Amino acid sequence: MNAAERSAASGGPPVAVERAFREERAGILATLIRHVGDFQLAEDAVQDAFAAAVATWPRDGVPSNPGAWITTVARRRAIDRLRRTRSLADRTDRLAELARLDAQEHPPVTEDSLVVDDRLRLIFTCCHPALAMPARVALTLRVLGGLTTAEVARAFVVSEPTMGKRIVRAKRKIADAHIPYRVPPDDELPDRLDGVLRVVYLIYNEGYSASEGDRLVRGELCAEAIRLGRLLSRLMPDDAEALGLLALMLLNDARRSARVDDAGRYLALDEQDRSRWDLGRIREGKRMLEAATRLRRPGSYQLQAAITALHVEPANRNDTDWAQIAKLYEVLARVSPSPVVEVNRAVAVAFASGAQSGLELLAPLLEDPRLEQYQPLHAAHAELLRRVKDSAGAARAYERAIALSANAVERTELEGRLQALDSR
Amino acid sequence: MSRYMLLLYRGEQGPQSPAERAAEMPLWNELQESLRDAGLLIAGDPLHGVDTATTVRVRNDETEIVDGPFAVTKEFLAGYYLLECADLDEALKQAARVPLAQYGSVEVRPVMDMGAPATAGEQAAAAT
Questions:
Q1: CATH no. for residue B56?
Q2: Nearest by CB to B125, which of A81, A175, A178?
Q3: Domain limits of chain A?
Q4: Per residue in A372-419, pLDDT tens?
Q5: Which residues on chain A are in Cβ contact (under 8 Å) with B122?
Q6: Residue A16 to residue A62: CA distance in whole angstroms
Q7: What ipTM was reported for this prediction?
Q8: Residues of B with CB below 8 A from A41's CB?
Q9: Checking phi first, is residue A296 left (phi over 0); if not, alpha (psi -120 to 50) or beta?
């Protein structure tokens, strides 16, 4: 089902198709992949089934169980496609299995655990380390998120044919290299799950940072990432970091619409209209964070979520617990050391113990050649210099940050601060 | 089961002298034996150096024979294994056990199965 078909979908049956597409497609696809043993074939068959739903539901009415209808039609299409395929090593076995499933008058209610396993398998296949990161992201959005190729292309600001090729190439590698369709064994699971969480967080950040591209599609990326995060935390309720990532995304997302004012101007945390924060998201995020903390396996996503939770805590912005935030950043810098964390830590320390202490932490970072092009470092440097009344130094740092800014909204904000400096 | 070619590339890192190579031999023997015992090994050999390579091209019926490897790069093909594995994960796991992986690179390539009919995946991919 493509975007045109979906946008044409407005009214009773089309809404049902839309809902089935969003909510059930990934699960149906995941199960069919297990039955036919072929990613591309299963996807084509599910695509056919949704096209059939678009064509027939408005005429014949919405079936009582849309998901089961789609599953049955997809299975039959898969049989057709398998028969048309001139040769396939294990075609006979596959066909026999599909025919057996199809012959059951009342297909047994698929066990929940089985469906859960299928979806997990699919996630691990899409996020396999043998695929390039852009391909993992694209495939995950396309296959599990149910975005069209055109939508994925728009979100990543590449042409549709380019994105189409990227996805086709990834699927071909899955088939030709026999990337397994399974949840990795226990010894590989932690590493592989890290990789899956990274893909989901990357999708979220791509939507959240909005450095370029269509803002509407970007919002959709955030929504998809959160949906995937919910799915993962449901499928792996004992994994603290999966819950931590979901908490982190929810708590960030609560502030997404408050980050830009009506004129499109970027707002720092302390300037945001707190009444525009999404309280539902904050509550859910905190609940997830608590659930994660109870598992007593701390990790980087949980720490980041805890920091974000402190930011959204006080009704009065002057009550933010910066000392606690600085402490959490210190732990985070130990758990997953990165210059980016160090910059954030310096800013938190500046709020907790004064701009001078923050500047001392920034000093070694400003010497780090890897951070020469890192815009937030120079923006933070400028801000702290301004607070210690070093106007000349602040102006130089603002200019540097402006030159490095890829985001128009952010650039305008920095230019405003630079001018405010001059007019003093 | 699928076949995978493990292409072993190395550069200037790793053992150079005969003594250093000899010291590494037990690791290779151990790998070779365990691959054979697991029934994964189809073939595997080290190759003579790049200075023994000859490259052949036929263009417009003219055979061109050039002394040297296909491409002169810092890393060169030093050997190979041909394995029969359940899936890519197993092939990658074996690749990581190759002693050369510590200082060189092991490229894992699925081998096309020309004996058996094409898979539906191949056909679908070819059709797009």
A1: 3.30.70.1060
A2: A175
A3: 1-110, 321-424
A4: 888 889 999 999 999 999 999 999 999 999 999 877 777 888 899 999
A5: 172, 175-176
A6: 7
A7: 0.75
A8: 120-121, 124
A9: left
Q: What is the model's pTM?
A: 0.78
Q: What's the CA gap between A377 and A363, in Å, rounded?
A: 11
Distances (CA, A) of A91 to A41, A88, A256, A332: 12, 5, 50, 52
Nearest CA to A167 out of A193, A189, A190, A145 is that of A145
Residue A390: what pLDDT?
93
* Distance between A168 CA and the closest CA of chain B, angstroms: 7
Nearest CB neighbour to A178, from listed B110, B116, B124: B110
Record: contact A179-B87, CB cut-off 8 A: yes
- A88, A130, A180 member nearest B119 (Cβ): A88
Burial of residue A398, with CB atoms counted within 10 A of its CB: 0-12 exposed, 13-18 middle, 19 or more buried? buried
Q: Residue B51 is part of which domain span?
A: 2-127
A148-203 confidence digits (pLDDT tens)? 888 888 877 789 999 999 999 999 899 888 898 888 888 888 889 999 999 999 89
Class of domain A321-424: mainly alpha
Angle at B75 between CA B72 and CA B77, to 5 degrees: 90
Strands B41-46 and B105-110: unpaired
**Residue of B2, B83, B112, B123 to mutate when probing chain A, most A C-beta within 10 A:** B123
Phi, psi of A113 (to 5 degrees): -60, -35
